[in-house]
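Researcher: Here's my situation. A collaborator sent me these components and asked whether they could plausibly form a single complex. I don't have experimental data yet, so a predicted model of the whole assembly would be a useful starting point for our discussion.
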Amino acid sequence: MPEPLRIAIAGLGTVGCGVLALLRDNAALLEQRTGRSIEVVAVSARERGRDRGMALEGLDWRDDAAALAAHPAADVVVELIGGSEGAARALSEAALANGKHLVTANKALLAHHGAGLAEAARRAGCHLGYEAAVAGGIPIVKALREGLAGNRISGVYGILNGTCNHIMTAMHDSVQSGQAREFDSVLREAQELGYAEADPSTDIDGIDAAHKLAILTSVVFGCPVDFGAVHVEGIRHVSAVDIGFAIELGYRVKLLGIARAGEDAVTQRVHPCMIRESAPIARVDGVFNAVVAEGDRIGSALFEGPGAGAGPTASAVVADLVDIASGRVMPAFPAAAEGTPRPAAKPMDRHVGAYYIRLMVVDRPGVLAGIAACLRDEQVSVEAMLQRGRDPGEVVPLVLTTHEAQEAAVVRALGAIGRLDPVMEPPRMIRIEAF
Amino acid sequence: MPEPLRIAIAGLGTVGCGVLALLRDNAALLEQRTGRSIEVVAVSARERGRDRGMALEGLDWRDDAAALAAHPAADVVVELIGGSEGAARALSEAALANGKHLVTANKALLAHHGAGLAEAARRAGCHLGYEAAVAGGIPIVKALREGLAGNRISGVYGILNGTCNHIMTAMHDSVQSGQAREFDSVLREAQELGYAEADPSTDIDGIDAAHKLAILTSVVFGCPVDFGAVHVEGIRHVSAVDIGFAIELGYRVKLLGIARAGEDAVTQRVHPCMIRESAPIARVDGVFNAVVAEGDRIGSALFEGPGAGAGPTASAVVADLVDIASGRVMPAFPAAAEGTPRPAAKPMDRHVGAYYIRLMVVDRPGVLAGIAACLRDEQVSVEAMLQRGRDPGEVVPLVLTTHEAQEAAVVRALGAIGRLDPVMEPPRMIRIEAF
């Protein structure tokens, strides 16, 4: 029997305890699958005394996570501390510098320092595993990097944040049931249910999804992780009335992360999108995550599963440990395909796509003519117009969808429209994605 | 630069040419990803003279596929001949016996001889790659075997045959549009469109799906492939009227393959199912395949993509070649978890589930009482009853759904019901699956 794989775990929150529980419950199965046992030798966490419902006897407890980086008995350090700087970063860099494999669920760390960590892992001949950092329950890193390795990938997109998808789904369902609820109310309920954090900003402002997108981009395009080049918008401004119109137009509203190889750059963006309700990803609801890969051989494939939680995240951490235990140590990110451009922060001004536009206008003759003139002046062509109900003299919503147009032109047209006398609120815009 | 990985390909039909095209088009990318070039050194096919739109110069052509098994320059034999016996089997066994890695897209071969081939590969220290044998465009073997390796899997099920799913989808759409079409007409059209073979029996009788299910069962449970233990029914008897009632009841009809670990055996079955339309797999339409894995840590995850075609199948073949080129050689099937029972041909008589039952009855008072008595006599409890329209004295459909019942009791009740005077046709039954 070969030596056990010995691991040290830093961070014993929900995920850390989930990993301990998995390694304990499925120990025999893992040993049969890898031919070795996977043994926890040391742990570190902030509060030693806390009741975690776990026996920690026999484990070498260190108050200072940094001590695990040089732990003489550990082959692998599992970093579950979180945060892009501080203890997590220091431990991760030190572990690799000491020649230990690193497994992490830390998307912020990877998004900000993935390129450097991958290079450090390469130099040390160590494995940097981060399956748990993106869509925990879906083995998406492995699927993209190995399962679709024969493909030239042109794009990858997905629902990368369960909190946002839960909120979008709840708003959609409320509109469909005739009891429309607005963002703030749904968010508050999500917080009570434990689907959103007390400080929800990282989730609802799109930052968490952007972290994951930056990682996925490097997995499929092989370019260094570049979080700074991601265009990020959250879901705070999506309103029930827009979701209602989306339904009427045959769309669903989702917060998506989208990375595409363009001619001169890989573009990365996270923002609310309208997508055809018949698109497979439109039907991924609740806290689930989903990722779609578009490849030159497969066309497209969709991977759907739980994105967070102790069990799914532990499953992903242990998948990386199984790879290491089985000797499947490989570069963190694949080599870039020849001719693949690097990510670049393409200004959204230059984005070309279709747009949903909602205006609040006074219902009186001639309003549409003025709006149409503003769009014509910017060469933005209208695909459809909707005005439900008539209420002369009152403020009513007027909805337009455009054909493909450059965002700069749409923004200029909306500026002009916003200054029209019968337009009572700043125009709202949601990008339409054709999948 | 390490030595190239040298491969010999047997079979140059659609898939074989797809593999050649992929290896040619994405050669540089594959070399960057694996650190080696992947080089085709020899090929074999039936008709040398056929125009394949491919340059075959420089490749060692062998008229006899068997010659590739001992080809001195080849590290890997790629078997794309097809069929569970004959040339495909002989080549595969000989290649492994000669210490060559084997990659195959041949589900019939794996379903019938997978256990023996896996053992031969183990003895030879060779890789047996078969990602292409199940749901080509979805890297499902890798996802299950490696990506979810930390999970104890309790069940796996999926839409494993694109032809059947295309037919079910077309029938569903026809019913929904009010232009209901029956199986025979849709099959004929599918044949004209190239979605079904001239001899469609392997697909529509569920055999192809059963081949794939038998392989998936071994991937998740680690037991030897046992095709003989799969219960197989096809879709010939699904009629438009049943699809219409399914829609009314909130179900979709799909041909599924389902493998579950029971207490004393792993059961494997392929048959038409009614599934809630809100279940993610219910919405997988057309020629797409999808697989859902249920694990103790992830809950469930769904993988969806193209199941066949030159590009997707070549993508899967090359994923296996990339594993071999990267040194990721591993056992064909994982070790069975301790305590996992082997597959066994559990008679469907002992299946417990809910049932959809359709009867064609003369519309007259008292009919339901007689039917209800037959069900009561077998302790089968009715969940819902539907009789749309009234047409006194005429034959009308009467639909029942049951609570959980043992299939033997349902079958006995249907026998008694079929003998009732006002019941004009043999009762139809479709199993309802609760996902």
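Model: Some features of this prediction you could bring to your collaborator: The longest helix of chain B spans residues 107-124. The domain at 140-308 of chain B is CATH 3.30.360.10 (Dihydrodipicolinate Reductase; domain 2).
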